[in-house]
Write a structure and sequence with these properties.
With 230 residues, this protein is α/β, with parallel strands linked by helices. It has helices spanning 39-42, 44-54, 81-91, 121-130, 143-147, 160-167, 180-184, 202-214, and strands spanning 2-11, 14-25, 30-34, 63-69, 103-105, 108-109, 115-116, 135-139, 153-157. Helix 2 packs across helix 3 (81-91). It is elongated and about 70 Å long.
Length: 230
């Protein structure tokens, strides 16, 4: 049986919707993962197998083929674990839920089924909103980052069993919300000058902003008499 689950990857700093297609057919037990996955995604086989078994579900001993579409986009990281596991349950008739195309599923799985945080959730949720996907399942630790995006329903999850129970309507989880006004309120700085007081020097300011965002060190050099003009 075939199932399709929406997830997301990154292309640079932008999120890209990825459709996880799972086909389970009769044959010798096998697990084939295609669609330009990196090593981290290929290792999902063992994480998904253990998470499914350790949460009381049956892992199908059949021929499992998984495609990450679009196939010409390189996929990286473990963020597809949860989508793959839920897709396997759906394709093996252990899970059904209404309108799966309206859910974006993100999360790394531990062997016990715990859902771990992943990087890049904010651009992934932005991509989902642009694609018209309104229900977002994310790791509990990523809930604040995901909920910054408005007009989508963000559901934080702790483990695999909780995710299945939620999709089966056996567990009610309220969408997580954040107070954007409080989050974006800038506290008064103890410094008398900031970047808003500097005219020009756009490249220098941009370099410092990127360094600060990534917690990188910066070495700036130039003529001895170079100045920032206020």
């Amino acid at each position: 049986m075939l199932s399709q689950v929406k997830s997301s990857g990154l292309l640079g700093v932008n999120g890209v919707i990825v459709t996880v297609e799972i086909d389970i057919s009769r044959g010798l037990p096998s697990y084939s993962l295609v669609g330009l996955p990196d090593a981290g995604i290929k290792e999902s086989k063992d994480r998904v197998f253990s998470a499914v078994k350790n949460n009381g579900f049956k892992y199908p001993m059949d021929r499992i083929t998984i495609n990450l579409a679009p196939a010409d986009l390189k996929k990286e990281g473990p963020a597809f674990d949860l989508a793959i596991a839920l897709g396997i349950l759906s394709a093996s008739d252990q899970l059904t839920w209404d309108h799966p195309e309206n859910y974006l599923i993100i999360g790394e799985l531990s062997l016990s089924g715990e859902i771990r945080s992943v990087n890049g959730v904010l651009p992934m949720v932005l991509a989902a909103k642009e694609a018209g996907i309104s229900n977002i399942l994310v790791p509990f630790e990523n809930r604040h980052e995901a909920a910054v995006v408005q007009n989508v329903n963000v559901y934080p999850l702790n483990d695999f069993h909780e995710a299945v129970s939620f999709l089966k309507n056996e567990l009610i989880i309220e969408p997580f919300k954040v107070d954007l006004n409080a989050l974006l309120t800038v506290e008064k700085s103890c410094h008398s000058i900031d970047f808003s007081d500097i005219r020009g020097q756009d490249l220098a300011k941009r370099a410092l902003e990127i360094a600060a965002a990534g917690a990188h060190n910066v070495l700036m050099s130039g003529p001895p008499n170079a100045n920032l003009y206020l």
